[in-house]
Amino acid sequence: MREVYVAGTGMMPFGRHPAGSARALARGASLAALADAGCAFADMDGFVAGSAHPLTPRGVYLAKELGVTGLPVLHAEHASASGLAAVHLAWTLVGSGEHEAVLVLGIDCPEREVSALSVIEGEGNLPAPALFAMWAARRMHDRGTTSRHLAAVAAKNWNYARANPFAARRSREEVTLEKVLASRMVAPPLTSMMCTPWGKGAAAAVVCSREFLARLASDAPAVRLVSSHVESETYAPGHVFEGAIVGPPAMTRAAAAAACGKAGVDPRDVEVVQVHDAFAIEELFYYELLGFCAEGESEGLVERGAFGPGSRERFGLPEFSTHGGLLAGGHPGGPTGVAQVHETVRQLRAGRRLAMCHMLGAGSVAITQIYQRAKAAG
Amino acid sequence: MTAPLGTIGLPDVVRYSGASGDRNPIHYDPEFARASGYDGPFAMGALHGGWLISHALAQGAALPDSGPFAVRLRFHRIVPLDVSLTADVRTAGTGHEAVLTVDGKPCATARIEVPSEPAATGEGDEEQRTRFPVELGAARAFAASVRWPRPVETGSPVPPTYPTVLSFWLPEPDPIARVGFEPARTLMGETSVEFVDGPLRVGEVFDVREYIANERVRTGSAGELRLVDLIAEMSGASGLRARYRNTFILTPDSEAAPAASEGGALRGSLDPLTGESYFPERTLSVDGGLRELEHVDLPREGSLYSWTSFGGRDYGQVDLANGVRVQVRLGPGPHEIGAGYLLEGDVDGDWWFARA
């Protein structure tokens, strides 16, 4: 594999967009990413679209919005992980030497109003809040986790989203634990502010070779996509085969270890992390499974303010979900992973050196990626 | 609150048959019922279901005057004629749940709720269309047949299951003939009516689109069950007003119809090499070695690993005695992690786990 870079990213706000907006969203996010990279659609020699919703127009239709150039178009679908799956595909296409520059578009905006939740349930799954509520109930039983721990994670991400112009949920005031706890109960112990609002939107990224990057007249620090890994379920006793949406939490541990291994990085050096925090309980698992603390330590660390602003400086631990995550940023299946990449690029350009992205997709898969600030190419 | 609901006799069936247009002889002809594998005639699902909804309303459950709401009936067991019925009404989630039992066994559940998703139009096969006026006389006869507790005048809401009378208007009125199932082997699994903005009212006229959708197959111990939905969408000047869906089940061609049978074990698969079992059944081993697995009946008991409730229903993961974890619907709470739970219901139809 040769080195792979992200030359630019862009996105459109997550939230409510009327049916029929997909083409405009695709154009908006793609143009922003291409402008950020400083190149044109005509410079691309590949296009990969990631979308989860079956009624979102397929990428081959959306690519034509940007130009009718004959370039190869591919689709990636992995439910919530569709965006990172599309980036993974671009990583292998560029890394193999087959392509020089691939535009990745993550998008979900169905042409008719059919909720993502009902699509997931239509595959024979339990409603997603119920599954993750069961993760929470069991962890409370095993570790003494309380609703306040869940509220602390949610409030942290809601407050990060206040500074993200693309977030679906932007609170005008500081969000407190009390406010999160007082919101409507969805599936005990999860309240509505501990659950993602889903939504629609688009995000895009230009994934390219070092040679392509060097030809661009950019003075921004280069961002390298060092490794990407897709992990599906591995059987272990207690495996739920039917209706679980996503496999055992341990799938995330394997995915993170593989991505770090391929990249040759130590998790302790990772400074900023974006995860599949569709439900607040998930982050408590991921702090441990991604390798940042030992099992059972998450609650104590959260009580002391770890994984939030200043975490790196105070605890030597990364900040999590710095754009508001899925909880407050919103979670259309297709673009969510690409929005994580957008945030990662923003963080690395601002001075962070090493970052990780993580998503889960129903069915199920965990996808992890390592990004690194590199010397400017050229 | 639990209360007796009386019995359904042949006169009730006749009255409902006339008011609803359901003419399936399995409900009134003893010989036909016996030839179909039943002990005798049994009530139409929407008859005792209608009684159950009326009872819930009389007990204080309310149907919204405007805005979206849904009424769902699930049928677990047939209700024979002339047996004592009991009903239990409780609040659940955004609305109410009422359960009809015979000899302590749940036969039907009615739920009145505000849905998380508004009803939407869908697509299907063999569409037929008609104009559907909600007539005062027809509405009164229907209301009386389901013991509707309110007066019916022009402008009054009609019972939520009233769209069953569509058979008087549709070009092809017989729903079982529509879905192409054999009447003697057909059961009603579920009826749901989703209202977009308040109930249907006497005097309104709707454009109806009825179609067949979601054909699917489930495998049970007695063989293959075929399920299909018959959906009618009722639209007025403001667009979609109600979506009426019936799920029909074609039972296997055998002597005993599954919904009339009792119990059974969950069917799983056993890996003869590792001794591990899995649910649901699978053909090949989990390690990629492509070993063929053997059928195994799974234990009916286990301990609760975790649980929650969502939309008024309780869900859990239960660790069965042989280490298989199943994700299931739970009976009513209170629930406790680590407590013993037992399989209830019919494994070929509706089943759940309840606290032992």
Structure characteristics:
heterodimer, A: 378 residues, alpha/beta, Peroxisomal Thiolase, Chain A, domain 1, ten-stranded mixed sheet, two-stranded antiparallel sheet, 12 strands, globular, B: 356 residues, mainly beta, Thiol Ester Dehydrase, Chain A, OB fold (Dihydrolipoamide Acetyltransferase, E2P), 2 domains, five-stranded antiparallel sheet, 5 helices, Thiolase_C_2 (chain A), acyltransferase activity, transferring groups other than amino-acyl groups (chain A), Thiolase family protein (chain A), Thiolase (chain A), Thiolase-like (chain A)
CATH architectural category of the domain at 4-113 and 198-215 in chain A: 3-Layer(aba) Sandwich
Give the amount of beta strand of chain B, in percent: 35-45%
Please, what is the CATH homologous superfamily of the domain at 4-113 and 198-215 in chain A?
Thiolase/Chalcone synthase
Oligomeric state, counting identical vs distinct chains: heterodimer
Low-confidence stretches of chain B: 255-262
Unreliable runs of chain A:
none
- Rg from alpha-carbon coordinates of chain A: 19 Å
For the biggest sheet of chain A, the summary is: 10 strands, mixed
Instruction: Report the order of strands and helices of chain A.
Output: EHEHEHEHHHHEEEHEHEHHHEHHEE
CATH topology of the domain at 4-113 and 198-215 in chain A: Peroxisomal Thiolase, Chain A, domain 1
Q: Mean pLDDT of chain A, nearest integer?
A: 95
Please give the radius of gyration of chain B in angstroms. 21 Å
- Protein chain pair with the most extensive contact, residues per chain: A-B, 31 and 28 residues
Query: Major sheet of chain B: order of its strands?
Result: 1-3-4-5-2-7-10-9-8-6
Number of helices of chain B: 5
- Report the strand count of chain A: 12
Domain Thiolase C-terminal (chain A): 252-350
InterPro entries (chain A): Thiolase, Thiolase-like, Thiolase_C_2
Pfam families (chain A): Thiolase_C_1
GO molecular function, one term (chain A): acyltransferase activity, transferring groups other than amino-acyl groups
